[in-house]
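Annotated sample (chain length 213).
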Amino acid sequence: MTEQSEPQTEGKPAAPDPVVVREAVTRQAVLGALLDHIKDAYKNAKTTADDLLDRSYRAGGTTKYDALLPDGTKVGSSSRSGGEREAQVIDDEVFRAWVRDHFPTEHVVEFVPAQVVTAVRPGFAGKVLAEATAAGTAKYVDPGTGEVHDVPGVELKPSRAASHRLTYTRGSKTQPAGGRDLVAAAWRAGALVEHLPALAPAATAPVVEEAEQ
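Output written by the structure step:
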């Protein structure tokens, strides 16, 4: 035995049964090892699925695919969430000059020792970028005159990449089990071994009875 214990002293809490402790540690070790296999396999599966889904979208615009068990039962689906773009200042000097010429009150000139610093008021810059993001183009409408400006030095750039969201089916009257439970049942039945061969039970050789002489 590897468990070590100290003699019981007065006032010291009773130690749990070493067998119970060992079983708990063993359970943690077993599940941790299995989890490592599953995490690595899932990471590879997600990378492959995301790549194929992106290629499918670029080729034909398909944004959703169902996940089916070998018998055709739907257990979930993967849906594409489009990326987002937002207006960003890509040329500070060009943007600053535009603000100076068209909105001089939003253009700040500060005198500091040995230099003059010019800048756009942060609040105004944020307002221009927010409006351009909402419009989907680098334009800003002067609230005072209604004039629409093409804002130089600003472009819309990706701020969030497209992604894919996997969801499982929910139980219903016709199919009480949800997608996760259906997958678990199919795994227990041995129908999904190909997806995680490292954890598949070893095949047992059939027992051949000897014929009576």
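Annotation: The mean pLDDT is 87.
Annotation: The chain has four helices and nine strands.
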